[in-house]
Specification:
By secondary structure, this protein is an alpha/beta fold. The protein is built from 4 helices and 6 strands; from the N terminus they run E-E-H-E-H-E-H-E-E-H. It has a 6-stranded mixed sheet with strand order 1-3-2-4-5-6, with helices on both faces. Helix 2 runs parallel beside helix 3.
Length: about 160
């Protein structure tokens, strides 16, 4: 199931603009988490699509109407059925897609440097950190977004 969220409400600071067509794919097996991320990010001016696991994420990226170049960012959980977040990232990197990726997971995976993950957000984290990580990842140029970073653990 794919959910697309676009809200009219805008929580950005006065004068702050989001670039046109900044589209985010959120992959997480927890439906309330997907809905929360989608709502927060849509209120910040992004178009958000959500799917329930890595396999559905891979299909969404390959869907005829969704050329992977049409997504500006991937946010994925790691521990999911069918295809984990890291397996999804490996498939993307093997296909040579340079999409920036935020890994949002309850556990930090090992040996992620070669996967070129833009940022790691350890769950649980404050939602303002999600928005900050998204803005940061989208602001970086193509050669700059492969710097694995962790924002540290934060409570909701």
């Amino acid at each position: 199931m794919i959910t697309v969220v676009e809200l009219q409400r805008d929580d950005r600071a006065p004068g702050e603009r989001v670039q046109p067509r900044q589209r985010i794919l959120v992959v997480d097996d927890n439906e309330p988490t997907r809905r929360l991320y989608a709502t927060v990010l849509a209120r910040s001016g992004y178009e958000v699509e959500t799917v329930e696991d890595g396999e559905a994420g891979w299909r969404a990226l390959h869907a005829e109407e969704h050329d992977p170049a049409n997504f500006d960012l991937l946010i994925t959980d790691n521990d999911m059925p069918k295809l984990s977040g890291l397996e999804l990232v490996k498939k993307l990197r093997n296909a040579r897609w340079d999409l920036p990726i935020i890994l949002a997971s309850g556990s930090a995976p090992f040996q992620t440097e070669s996967l070129e993950i833009t940022e790691f957000l350890p769950k649980p984290f404050a939602l303002d950190l999600l928005v900050k990580a998204v803005k940061s990842a989208l602001a970086l140029g193509p050669a700059e977004h492969f710097n694995f970073q962790s924002t540290g653990k934060h409570d909701l």
